[in-house]
Fold these 2 entries.
Entry 1:
Amino acid sequence: MSEQIDKSAGWVTFDPELKIVDCTVRDGGLINAHQFENGFFKKVYDTCVESGIDYMEVGYKADKKLFSTKDNGPWKFSTEEDIRREVGENDSNLKLCVMADAGRTNLDDLLPRKESVLDMIRVATYVHQLPAALEIVKDAKQKGYEVALNLMAVSTVPDFELDHALDVIKEVPEVDVLYVVDSYGSLYYEQIDDLISRYKKTGKMLGIHAHNNQQLAYANTIYAAINGVKLLDTTMMGMGRGAGNCATELMVGFLKNPKFNLRPILKFVQETMLPMSQEMDWGYSVPYMVTGHYNEHPRSAIALRGGDRKDDYLGFYDEIASP
Amino acid sequence: MSEQIDKSAGWVTFDPELKIVDCTVRDGGLINAHQFENGFFKKVYDTCVESGIDYMEVGYKADKKLFSTKDNGPWKFSTEEDIRREVGENDSNLKLCVMADAGRTNLDDLLPRKESVLDMIRVATYVHQLPAALEIVKDAKQKGYEVALNLMAVSTVPDFELDHALDVIKEVPEVDVLYVVDSYGSLYYEQIDDLISRYKKTGKMLGIHAHNNQQLAYANTIYAAINGVKLLDTTMMGMGRGAGNCATELMVGFLKNPKFNLRPILKFVQETMLPMSQEMDWGYSVPYMVTGHYNEHPRSAIALRGGDRKDDYLGFYDEIASP
């Protein structure tokens, strides 16, 4: 258990350093290949602005040489033109960020920050890709951005290897924020706590991105917020691949900073997210619980949920549990 | 934060004292006035036996002079005849318990344990009814039962009043187990921790009964299990009034005691609970989140969900948030 801090995120005092990063378009877009209806992006943006959200992740910055623009919607690529069409000069307190995957990003696509409405680049990487990721990190920092590094799937990485990666990251001043990412939704609070303790040794500001395979995304995010993690990833109605994420409405309802406003979020969730949730499959269900328990990528559960055996919990469990 | 114990419920070692109490029929019956289809009870019972569950709560022991047997199904009353019709002599390792509400129970309905298939009486009480509850406690203990005391709605009770009640309970040797109950699903782990610490001063074995208004029922139950609470209430697919409970399948998947078996539970959830969940409304949704945040009884959210405005999240929020 990491050291306790005086100021609990749950009390009437609050930590002004706690920031919410809404990832609805980016992570939710993994369900529909970022092919949202016209107007969806702008509604998310307006909702984030009105509710006092700190950052909105607009999508991925994927290389068009690697991914089809026919099979993927615009937020797979998040060009400056597309973003500006929605947000203009972004004359608001909401910061904008984009996710750049190691091995899938063309550095030429990253404009200097002063020519962009983007504020932060979030570099997503598996531990074994760290050197490639750090090239993006350094490029983005040199171009003037805030830079976050999201280490994916660390629940499958041996401790000694993870610690080595953290030692490397500690020496890279271009990393502003280091993210604890529970890619498989397999972790509960003692494991989150262990990761936080390890990550703190880098001296970096920390973030958390949780998945809801075991109904723990919100709980783990609260736990992290109370134990020194500052950037909290959420999505509207928890929309995200597979079991989805920590719901923005839960987190805004929990944090006591008066700058946050729950009303615009509930309006958006009711009018836009709820009808979408009835057409698309995301959120906790038993198959995601099973892959979470087994610390596996949710792709098998996603495939099941997309087919005609979607509720064959027992058959799926027998497949995953068989050695 | 209470003291750490060596043996985490999440590790490959396990605490054999951790017991699961399945409350599906009792708490789930609050949705349908305990009017389940024929055969449902027996399926829950068989599933509990096969999966190694420790206790099954069969229902309430309500006074037939106070409640109509026409408007309520048999598990509102849980007569010895009805229980035996389902379980015979209960020739299994599964213990059976029943809930007796303070002020709603006729002591004459409690047979001596040696004449009953019941093993434990769980006395549910508001703090202000404690003297009435302790009369049931003492009667049940004198008749030979294990006895649990469930203090309801303590999230609305001032600390000094709760501490006084705990001082009284400490001196009642007939109480075997004292339950931390999050009636409104309003608590997160720091608050659960505070209650655990206070309740531990009674020297009693502790239990926890959580609700899922904020998607925290499982998280809070894990937290309690790791911090010294021994009896863990769950329900199949989380079925229970309003936002429901900690799901039995999540808890069985988490605990490492090899006596537990997830397969029968997944089979039952898939074949019986899932179809029921499509006909009846339980589980997390925004209105329950709102009453949880405001530390209110969920009855207003239940009424909303049962009417034609069930998804009017914003209108409901405005009602609850208005002073």
Entry 2:
Amino acid sequence: MTRRSHTPRDPDFARRCQESCASQPAMSRLFGGKMVSIEPGYCEIHIATQPDFLQQLGNFHGGIVGALADSAAGYAALSLLEPGLEVVTVEYKISFLAPAFGEYLVGRGEVLRSGRTLHFCSADIFAVQNGVEKPVAQMTTTMMAVPDHKK
Amino acid sequence: MTRRSHTPRDPDFARRCQESCASQPAMSRLFGGKMVSIEPGYCEIHIATQPDFLQQLGNFHGGIVGALADSAAGYAALSLLEPGLEVVTVEYKISFLAPAFGEYLVGRGEVLRSGRTLHFCSADIFAVQNGVEKPVAQMTTTMMAVPDHKK
Amino acid sequence: MTRRSHTPRDPDFARRCQESCASQPAMSRLFGGKMVSIEPGYCEIHIATQPDFLQQLGNFHGGIVGALADSAAGYAALSLLEPGLEVVTVEYKISFLAPAFGEYLVGRGEVLRSGRTLHFCSADIFAVQNGVEKPVAQMTTTMMAVPDHKK
Amino acid sequence: MTRRSHTPRDPDFARRCQESCASQPAMSRLFGGKMVSIEPGYCEIHIATQPDFLQQLGNFHGGIVGALADSAAGYAALSLLEPGLEVVTVEYKISFLAPAFGEYLVGRGEVLRSGRTLHFCSADIFAVQNGVEKPVAQMTTTMMAVPDHKK
């Protein structure tokens, strides 16, 4: 995928996204997600395998794959917003290309188009097994910028 | 929603769905999901609030809402299959109608159309707060019947 | 489907929706769509079969089924808006439950949730053959209210 | 988007796809679509502007954008199938990134993953105005291979 070039409206976007991700109980504690890269309009998050994340055959539960894709896309969108704004997911669609077996999941989110209110994003999910990365899911999503009421 | 009437191909479908759900580490242990109703082409699963399921504002993380909807729709499809078949999620789309606050989530999955290979399902998710049920998400999904390799 | 009850913000909503539909070249002229019912949060449009609407096997082309569902959902949303606002489609997902054979198509759009900016809608499409109505497609969509620049 | 490399199972795939597209009344006659490129797992179709394809503001109706994306993705999938098989659309989701103004539409469909029965595809739609190509819509879709009953 050709990465689109985006200009961030907040020079401190990286720290803001990292802190938001780390303070999310579900993504950081329940799923153990680590944000390994954040650029304007792009975000990469990894989730390491834990037994409770798996289905009976040993592949990742779709709910965790979906949560990872949603988060990677959401932080890609957040990276482009001004301070004081937050991102909410309006909707997403995810296609499960292949079962996700391996040591960890890689989620790469990207902003396809950034509007005033709505942000169209995509996310690609890969499973890494014995060092080999394989595509397992593909998401497209609509994100909306809203005032950040936590502050 | 008018419930469609379906005929199960396996008289033992309820036990089979209950056992499958209880043996899923992600749904039963990680999310604590309980299957409270299973009928031909219909399934209801509840997930009680835990601190790690929440976002910073106290509402459920979308990943858990999505996992619940996916499971409710998947078991609705499984309830109509012959023994020896399993269900995999091909894709789903979920719309987040409102933030999900409350004591627990209710997921109701339903089969819209049951084909030979593919099953079109929907799921409605509600959050229950102080005993009041409020719609928070809506999913449509394509499920595929595959041989059950766990047996 | 249980119809939700909605209150229109424009008492003249029915005329406004009818006029908008009749003035759309694509829906009214190309596809010959007729709005047969418009209520607050609900719209029904019919499209009669023409040879150019069909695939090689004689069933409706998916593009026409999709256009009908999009229009029925869009006018359901427009019926709830104040004068001076227009509706644009943010995204939709459509599932093709069965091939659409028959004399005409029926599209029934409904608003699931009406927010300030975004409107979540669904649409069900039926094909009528020898007087028998059969479900052929199901859509969910996000609509956005924007200022009507045509006026 | 990095184009995936695919191997066709039918050496005559290009002629088969061209003929199928030309014989579709809706795509070839109603919308005037021209297949300008067909490669293994890839298809490009153009639709020239006609007054009846437009909305009141002069942009393409979403139904035509959707039909183009569906066809481009479908022929990308068909290009990989053995003779005697046909493609049906299971479902698609389309996001409307921007209104589509211009002289013609370009639809580029691609196969993301080709399975035995199901084919995951995407399509990007561009509007060309004064020679400048602008992205206007993005689709992901599930296609299914079925026996071709027309032969």
